[in-house]
Amino acid sequence: MFIASRIACFIAFCLLLWSGPSAAQQPEVPNLEGVWLVKKKDAILWHRDRTNENNSSAKLEIKKQEGPTLEAIYHWAHAAHAGQDHNGATQARSGHDQLIGLIGWNNEQISFVQHPNRGILSGRLINDHLMELTRVESGGYAVVERLILIRHRSE
């Protein structure tokens, strides 16, 4: 009987460790809703043009958050001569991408996917007002960019 109770205690202890912290012990999911402005940026596009914070601007607008799930729009604009549009002839001056996202279990990791495009943005929340993201879009119109964003304070 002693051995059976020891085994039962060991199994209960293992289940407790496996289940992780209770909801009461887990930190609150941070509220990321609002506008995040890109302050630092480096990017290379499929046609090898490069952009940065001096010749382009961008912002991430997190429109809706339910717990760890996010809905957002990534707005971007380039100065003249920053690169060709997907048709290869005209200049791509500005645009936006629809995103869905998720905050990781540690409340620091952040991941977004573009839809219907193939882009992925991933990174981390540094603090309540600062995040870093890397954007990767594959395919014929590939883009790779790294971003530092700060939360815009509404007046």
Could you walk me through the main structural features you see in this protein, from its secondary elements to its overall organization?
This protein is mainly beta. It has one domain (30-151): Lipocalin (Beta Barrel). Helix content is 12%, strand content 50%. It is built from one helix and nine strands. Strands 1-3-4-5-6-7-8-9 form an eight-stranded antiparallel barrel. It starts with a helix and ends with a strand. The model has no long low-confidence stretch (mean pLDDT 83).
Indicate the proportion of strand residues: over 45%
Q: Say how many strands there are.
A: 9
| CATH H-level homologous superfamily name | Quinohemoprotein amine dehydrogenase alpha subunit, domain 2
Please give the largest β-sheet: 8 strands, antiparallel, barrel
Oligomer: single chain
Catalogue the unreliable spans.
none
Radius of gyration: 21 Å
Q: Please give the CATH class.
A: Mainly Beta
Cα end-to-end separation = 69 Å
Number of helices: 1
Strand order of the largest sheet: 1-3-4-5-6-7-8-9
Count structural domains: 1
Topology-level CATH name: Lipocalin
In CATH, the architecture is: Beta Barrel
Coarse structural class: mainly beta
Helix content: 10-25%
Which whole number gives the mean pLDDT? 83
Overall 3D form: globular
Element order: H for helix, E for strand: HEEEEEEEEE
Task: Write a brief structural summary.
By secondary structure, the chain is mostly beta strands. 12% of the residues lie in helices and 50% in strands. It has one helix spanning 2-19, and strands spanning 34-45, 50-52, 56-66, 69-78, 94-103, 109-114, 120-127, 130-137, 143-151.
